[in-house]
Design a protein that fits this description.
Elements: E1 7-15, E2 19-28, E3 33-37, H1 44-51, E4 59-64, E5 67-68, H2 73-77, E6 80-83, H3 95-105, H4 110-123, H5 139-151, E7 157-161, H6 169-184, E8 188-192, H7 196-202, E9 205-210, E10 213-218, H8 220-223, H9 232-240
Parallel strand pairs: 3-8, 3-9, 6-7, 7-8
Antiparallel strand pairs: 1-2, 1-4, 4-5, 9-10
Length: 243
């Protein structure tokens, strides 16, 4: 069994006039469901955007499944899928066309991608909308379709920034089940969320960052060792001093 982590960040920094990410060290194991939490402006989204290759760090090193992102960005990005909090879809495409398009970007033949696309649409209760234009979709439907697009090439590392924003309870449950299934098959999921109950229920390990630095990390029991039985919300507020 390999011990190479899914993600290793070493001294990662990014400044926008002030430090957004400040010498961040973070390691996520393969096959792990990891939640990255923090107050607004803590550096969560900036960190994920650098891991996805959308922002260049000012300093530090990013390794994706043992691949240095700076040295071989194409190889590293092939192992990743990144879903931002406000994903872009193409309104004049139907879900099946959108997934075929995304699969093509990954070099997957349309016929080979079709079974996976249908499986994902069924998982997310979008099958009955497969032949409708996405411009008429609700925000929740668009969020689910974007997740299907992120999973179409079966990425080893799935990075999600607030994936449950705008979802009703039923849709959120579908997304959570799909993410847990991805981890159960050996994939790695890293997500940010302000819905702390989601992290408490799903994540195997939780990292809390503030002012661009990791201030605490571990299982829920490890994080609340000073206050046994506390909820994640109570623990989060105590650690960040935002009670």
């Amino acid at each position: 069994m390999t011990t190479t982590p899914a993600l290793a960040l070493t001294g990662l920094s990014k400044h926008f006039g002030r430090p957004a990410v400040d010498g961040l060290h973070l390691t996520v194991a393969r096959g792990e469901f990891y939640a990255l939490l923090g107050p607004n402006g803590a550096g969560k989204t900036t960190t994920l955007r650098m891991v996805a290759g959308l922002l260049a760090p000012d300093a530090g090193r990013i390794e994706v499944l043992g691949i240095d992102l700076a040295a071989d960005p194409a190889a590293a990005k092939r192992r990743i899928a990144y879903l931002p909090d406000d994903p872009m879809l193409y309104g004049k495409l139907k879900p099946t066309e959108y997934l075929e398009f995304v699969a093509g970007l990954w070099g997957i033949d349309a016929k080979a991608a079709e079974p996976r696309a249908r499986e994902l649409l069924a998982w997310l209760d979008l099958e009955k909308h497969a032949h409708e234009l996405t411009e008429g979709f609700s925000r929740g439907m668009k969020q689910k379709l974007a997740l299907a697009g992120a999973l179409i090439h079966d990425p080893e590392l799935l990075i999600l920034d607030e994936p449950l924003t705008g979802l009703d309870a039923g849709a959120a449950r579908q997304v959570k089940d799909l993410l847990l299934s991805h981890v159960a098959k050996g994939g790695t999921v890293i997500l940010t969320t302000h819905i702390l109950e989601v992290a408490e229920r799903l994540a195997q390990r939780i990292g809390i960052i503030q002012h661009g630095r990791l201030i605490a990390q571990g299982t829920l029991d490890e994080l609340r060792v000073a206050t046994p039985g506390a909820t994640l919300e109570e623990t989060f507020l105590r650690l960040t001093g935002t009670a």
